[in-house]
Amino acid sequence: MNPIRRIFNVYRKNFEMPMPEEGVKMSVYTSLGIIAVVCIMLPCCLIMGYLSYVMTLAMMVEGNRVNGLISEMHILSAFAMVLGMPVVFNVLFFSSDREHMVTLPVKSWQLLTAKFFHTFMAESVMEFLIFISMFIGFFIAAVTESGPWPALHPVSIIAAVSGIVLTPMLPLVYCCLISLILMAALKRVRSIKTFYHSSTVLMFIFVVLFIYSFRDMGTISFDNYIDSLVADNNFFLRICNTVFFTTPMLCKAMAWQSLPQLLLYLLSTAAATAMILLLGAWLYQPGLYTAAALGSRKKKVDKNKLNLKSTNVFKSYFLKELRVLTRTRAYSANCVYVNAIWPIGIAVIFFITRDNESVQQFLGYYREGYERASLLILLAVIFMAFVASAMNSLSSTAFTREGSHVDIIKYIPVDYKTQMYVKAAVSISLTAPFLILSVITAAFFLNFSLLTGLYYSLIAIEALLISVVIGLALDSASPYTLWDDEYSALRGNLNSFFNMAVMMVMSLLICGLFFLLYELAHLPLIAVYISLPVFLGIIIAAAFIFGRRRIIANMEELF
Known about the structure:
Mean pLDDT: 85
Radius of gyration: 26 Å
Strand content: under 5%
Number of strands: 0
Number of domains: 2
Distance between the termini: 37 Å
Number of helices: 25
Structural class: mainly alpha
Helix content: over 70%
Low-confidence stretches: none
Largest sheet: none
């Protein structure tokens, strides 16, 4: 068997966590998988498909077939680059198997090739689904505008299928190129953090380019963005057409049934991939030496300055968990700092919609005390709190983070109950401040009272407590412990995906219940405000009573 294929198969086994194959756990996880697909993946795909349909139809009406689809693909490719940079650095240079793999009788370019394609498959699954949805939306719009033929021309179909599989390739090629060049150019740096900061730099560049594209339009709005695409003078689009140069080729092949453009797209993608692999034959091995040298530099610690002192068990274990989360780059970025998305996102949404008449009219109704507007804001707070509490994966990776050393849970001189409470306390303490900050951010734009802000904060904390218990229960039942690095632990842990799905279903059920009670049963709004935290409190009590027993039982069954 080819060495590349052998190494790829080894990495493929680390693609995702093993699932229970029989018994009650199998039934539970199968049900959770169905819920996750229906409540997360399907809605995301439908939203992206609808957005592609609307933008494409708007472009076609104005005589521009492709700019809408091209801009969507560019934004997705930019996100793929930003999120892919730390993963590529970790997989290529800083993974724990580096010392073992480099001693194998294989060439460096073969090792790079296997790692590249494994990363491509592991990171692109969701992108494949989104591209399928986007292309379906594009074709529906094309059929609406010009009929089934030539919209569904064989060349267009082949181009779409090729684009679904190959479009995520170019962003990953750029990530590998940047990582190889940085490892070669920055041989004398003393900190691994320098390399990971490249992801932040990329994000800053793309955000600046996107904002700069509105420089002559007055305000950042969806309508202005569409107008700039129609006029073909969007600065962000022009720059990305050069960076992600294969995307316009693909879209032209789909829109105009151009076989030359399709062939050019396939050849360009193949050439870019071959280039990075050939460059890897020259730069990858020296980069591995640089990574090894970085890993061998250890700081000297003066034990007399450590200020060691004894403390209680709970505090010691809490600080240990806190340090693991904040000092491990994968965990800090994806579990801790990701919570900042919510207050920032709320501010951005209010800022972007400040000139939207419909949104401002609704907010005016809320400020004036209209009951239905107040109810909708309350339901939005509930949904946001549930989703935000689950998205950071703090509780749903609590046991997965122990990795192959999960048996420390049994042998460490801390009882199971205390460990459970510590893991819950860490999840709460790292999430609650951002939830409260989100409420404060909303208060700045909605001008609600301090009492209302305290009420919204109470609702958010109750949702957080429910999410933490369910996340701990899921991860303790079937933790993913055979991961190679922290990024693999987060990427391959399906418990986070399931926790998110459960929280979305629960939030929708709760929102739907109280909306129907108000609309159909004519429950007064004040009664909704009073009964909602009580209802959530009952769920918390039930989750605490039954969930605590189940989590401890799961911890005992781990060994």
